[in-house]
Specification:
Helices cover 14% and strands 29% of the residues. It contains two helices and five strands, in the order E-E-H-E-E-H-E. It binds iron/sulfur cluster (2 copies).
């Protein structure tokens, strides 16, 4: 299992993306109001996690259930 993790020390937020599940069609990129995500080589990344407003839209939108967010259980 390949799980990538991004952390914001500033916000105390963690986003994990399961790369075995991620299909790279970028629904997370489309729904995130803060432009946290970017698809790189067919997989989602979260380079702008410091801008997260903890709305959980990404977790709800991901059709593959690939995103875990520390504020959205
Ligand atoms: S919405 Fe889910 S499956 Fe689609 S790119 Fe984002 S993390 Fe990957
Ligand atoms: S919780 Fe909201 S603001 Fe944070 S990464 Fe997901 S969609 Fe973007």
């Amino acid at each position: 299992m390949v799980v990538k993790t991004w952390k914001s020390d500033e916000l105390g937020v963690t986003i994990e993306i399961d790369y075995d599940k991620c299909e790279g069609y970028a629904e997370c990129v489309s729904v995130c109001p803060s432009d946290v995500f970017e698809v790189v080589d067919g997989k989602a990344t979260a380079p702008n996690i410091d801008d997260c407003i903890e709305c959980c839209a990404c977790v709800e939108a991901c059709p593959a259930n690939a995103i875990k967010h520390s504020s959205c259980d």
